[in-house]
Amino acid sequence: MSNSLDPRSDIMRAWQAAEAKQNFSRLVDAAKDGPQMLLRHTEPVGIVLSMKHYEQLRDQANAAFANFLLASPLEENDFDKDVGMSLSGG
């Protein structure tokens, strides 16, 4: 069956792609307990997350980006608001 991997100090169950396909409901249920790694042969190809875990990661990323902007030494007047690209190429 599957094995456990430790890619970033978080124990994560690894599922072969065929096993994940055959046991999709079990995979989704297991994601409630933590991220589930998808493998094709021995190569990691994806992660299945619960919605709760996804939202936590998204919120952390948003907070980190907001903190990055707040820590910037630039001021609003340092940005040229008219710079941009047109979808029409003009």
Please summarize what this structure is.
The protein has 90 residues and is α+β, with helices and mostly antiparallel strands.
What does this structure look like?
By secondary structure, the chain is α+β, with helices and mostly antiparallel strands. 39% of the residues lie in helices and 21% in strands. It has three helices and four strands, in the order ββααββα. Strands 1-2-3-4 form a four-stranded mixed β-sheet. The protein is elongated and about 55 Å long. The relative contact order is 0.11.
Topology of this protein?
Layout: E1 3-5, E2 12-16, H1 17-22, H2 24-31, E3 36-40, E4 43-48, H3 51-71
Parallel strand pairs: 2-3
Antiparallel strand pairs: 1-2, 3-4
Strand order of the largest sheet: 1-2-3-4
Tell me, rounded to a whole number, the average pLDDT: 81
**Which structural class is indicated by helix and strand composition?**
alpha+beta
C-alpha termini separation: 56 Å
State which percent range the strand residues make up: 15-25%
Give the low-confidence spans.
1-9
- Gross geometry: elongated
Topology order in helix (H) and strand (E) letters? EEHHEEH
- Largest sheet properties: 4 strands, mixed
DSSP strand tally: 4
What is the helix tally?
3
